[in-house]
Amino acid sequence: MLYSDVDIIPEDNIRLSAWEIPSPTPSDKTVIVNHPLTTTRYGSDAGLDGVAAEFLPMVKHLYDANYNIVMYDHRSQGESDGGLGSKAIGNEALVGAGVTEWQDVAASLRYVLAHPQFGDDDIFFLSQCMGANATFLAWKKNQTCFRTPKLKG
Q1: Which domains does the chain have, with CATH numbers?
Q2: From CA 139, how far away is CA 136, in angstroms rounded?
Q3: Cα–Cα–Cα angle for 149, 108, 34, rounded to 5 degrees
Q4: What is the tens place of the pLDDT at every residue in 14-62?
């Protein structure tokens, strides 16, 4: 799967590291993939319970089904900015198990809606664990953004 490294910037200016993975053939479907706590967009060697997780095989199924994909690391995780004190990368940010990450979800949706290639697509979320918490909270707090008829699930 070919990909590009991109940055997504929420309204509070915490830089989110992301991948854009365009579908193998032209597509009108884009899925935004976020991740559980203690993992990254790639997965984790240890996971929450010491069990390794790798998300790329799951994403490969979406790619093979001709979806464009945007995957990002939530704030303070993976290659995104955040953290506190001496461990902070860029701007400081807490991990909130969805309570702060809703801003990341809203920013990822705004990013796709403004994207020159994906902006007219049907848009879907694949949200897992903390990512699902963040998605539901984003939907509640940012209803205008989520009212787009392009959002299908």
Answers
A1: 4-146 (3.40.50.1820)
A2: 5
A3: 105
A4: 999 999 999 999 999 999 999 887 777 888 887 667 778 888 999 999 9
